[in-house]
Amino acid sequence: MGNPLVVFVPGLGLDEQEWERVRARLDRDSVVVVLPTMGQPARRGLDLRVEAQAALLARRLPRNAPLILVAHSASCPIAADLASRSGDVVGLVLVGPVTDPAAASWPRLLVQWARTAVREPWWQLPALFRQWARTGPGSMIRGMNAVRPFRTDHALRSVQAPVAIVRGERDQIAAKEWSATVQSASGGHLSTVRGAAHMVPTTHPDAVVDAAHHVLAAVTAAERLRDDEPQLPI
């Protein structure tokens, strides 16, 4: 199969800077792929549905090469959808995944966001504001509006690759109950980061690296099992 490439996809309104602390600690090659509303502004009228974003992500990735996708927040549905359709995705790490159907409406989503935002360390704000300003509030609102109805848990039922889910202990966006649903749908490994809220890649990068290593180990173990299977004579 070869050595999987680790691909990071930013969350809503964020860009390559979100993953800097994670990539600095990861002992292997990686790339960041930005998407409209997730590292790039999105013009009005652009198709921002999860399926369209997943197709765009696929076009920006190498073909016929093993990939481990690491996504955060609103990019998790996109990574899950692509993983459910592409055999190139051999592993998946979902950090603070959405979309909780209990928060599908804007009022409930905003309540979750507010309850989580007050639990975030304030030292992140300058970097976050710079990234949000580059993406633009209009792009972010249109992007989240397109993502809200998607059922990430349903997409994960078709994913055959190893999955790791990471959530912050104080995260109300990727709430405990919803994260357990994601774990059940994917058969994945769920870890909860003590003291963290939603911005785990920035505040607790080692937790993301640990999850990536967990998936890499599972991928390697599965490959060894396949190699050890007896070959039937032709």
What can be said about this structure in brief?
This protein has ten helices and eight strands. By secondary structure, it is of the alpha/beta class.
Describe the protein in words.
The structure is a single chain. The protein is of the alpha/beta class. The protein is 44% helix and 15% strand. It contains ten helices and eight strands. The chain has a six-stranded parallel sheet with strand order 2-1-5-6-7-8, with helices on both faces. α1 (20-25) links the parallel β1 and β2 (30-32). The mean pLDDT is 94.
Q: How far apart are the first and last residues' alpha carbons, in Å?
A: 22 Å
Shape: globular
Q: Helix count?
A: 10
Q: Uncertain segments of ≥5 residues (pLDDT<50)?
A: none
Q: What share of residues are in beta strands?
A: 15-25%
Helix content: 40-55%
Question: Strands of the biggest beta sheet: in what spatial order?
Answer: 2-1-5-6-7-8
**Largest pleated sheet:** 6 strands, parallel
How much is the average pLDDT?
A: 94
Order of helices and strands: EHEEEHEHEHHHHEHEHH
Radius of gyration: 17 Å
Structural class: alpha/beta
| Strand element count | 8
Give the arrangement of secondary structure elements.
Blueprint lengths: L4 E5 L10 H6 L4 E3 L2 E2 L2 E2 L9 H10 L7 E6 L3 H10 L3 E7 L10 H12 L7 H11 L1 H11 L4 H5 L6 E6 L7 H11 L2 E5 L6 H4 L1 H24 L6
Parallel strand pairs: 1-2, 1-5, 3-4, 5-6, 6-7, 7-8
Helix pairs in contact: 2-3
Looking at this protein, list some descriptive labels.
single chain; 234 residues; alpha/beta; six-stranded parallel beta sheet; two-stranded parallel sheet; 10 helices; 44% helix; 15% strand; globular
